[in-house]
Every structure is written in structure tokens, then in C-alpha cells.
Fold:
Amino acid sequence: MFVLAIDTSGKSGGITLAEGDRSSFRALESSPIAGGTFSAQLVPTLASLLQKHGLAAADFGGFAAVSGPGSFTGLRVGLSAIKGLAEVLKKPIATISLLEALATLSHQPGTVAAALDAGRTEIYFGLYTFSNGRAEKIREQLLSQEEFVAQVKVSSPVRLITSDQVVAELAYPSGVQVQEVARPETDVIARIGLQKLLRGEVVSVEDLDANYIRRSDAELFSKPKI
Structure:
């Protein structure tokens, strides 16, 4: 099966063309996309990769997309592109949380916490059970830095994995085992997405939505004043 993976959740993003089955995986090529250019560069970058590898969009067996958490604008661009392709081609979609992708990089069975800097002195936090290369979500939530430190202490000796130094620095004094890794690339997203597609863990075009975790400013500031 050929798979297209897209991540537009961060300051930069990218796409990966991959192929595989239940027992194999191969990333054909990955291409980064600079932040602020997602809407302009996503389709041309995809077209260039398809041409380079002699593929057509119709060759895809399914799509894998990071659904969040992350940039509201960036996520909308990526998910809109996936929606358009999936609707036209009638292909399934697998969504992957960036926290879930982080948790899969732990490579150790057991319970693992994944965390990302959410800005505004807040932390995206997820708790997962990891086994056989697969991270099963227990919960995901948005925490203040103070709440995060308290949660890490309560969860100890659960391992913590993060790609953000500010998160690691907050966690180290608690004594929890901290694993710092690079932000998951789109080849990681493609690998997770392929297995989800093969297991039938998919969403319809109509149900595809972003996993923001945090509410948007528009939602926060639209509350009626008392």
C-alpha cells in the first residue's frame, strides 16, 4: 500500500510518501515545508514527489495526517488538503496525534507520558500504554506548567518523552525519567498511519477534524461578558 503522510501542525511541516504492509515499511521520500508556506507549497511539493517516483495520486491506498495538537491555521491547511484528496479518490484517512507519535518513540513497553510545549506557559500532555510498537491513548489534556509538574510527580515512575527542552527542564526536578527526542518527522507519521489504515482505524471525510486540545482564541473571547 502507498501512503501519503502530512504534518502541518508546527512552525515547519512536511510530507512523506511511503509504502508497506503489515510486516514491512519503506519511506520513499520525505520533503519539508517551511512554516507560513503550507497553503502555497503543499500541493506543488506533493506533485513534485509523485512525478519523481512515477506515481499518481490514485495510487495511494490511504492517507495519514497529524490531527494535532498544534497551530490552528497550519492544521486546517493540512487537513483540508487530506479531505480534498480523500473525497475525490475515495480513500481512507488515519489520524495521528503528535503526542501519540512522540509516545511511539519511547521504544520501551509500559506506560509513557508524552508532553509538548503549548506556549502561554501551558503544556500539551498525553498518557499512553506502549507495547508492540503501538501507543494506546489513556488521556490527553492541556495543563498549566504548575499542573504539569504536579501531574509528573503523581505519575512517577512513569517515563516522560518530549521534544521540547522547556518541558524537560520542568520535569527533571521531579525525578521522573525524561527522554528527550527530536520532533517526530513525517516518516514516523507515515509508519503509524499505515498500520492504522491496515487495522481499519480510519475516519471518514465528514468526521475528519483537528485535535486542538486547546480551544481557539475565537472560542475563548466569544464568551458573553457578564
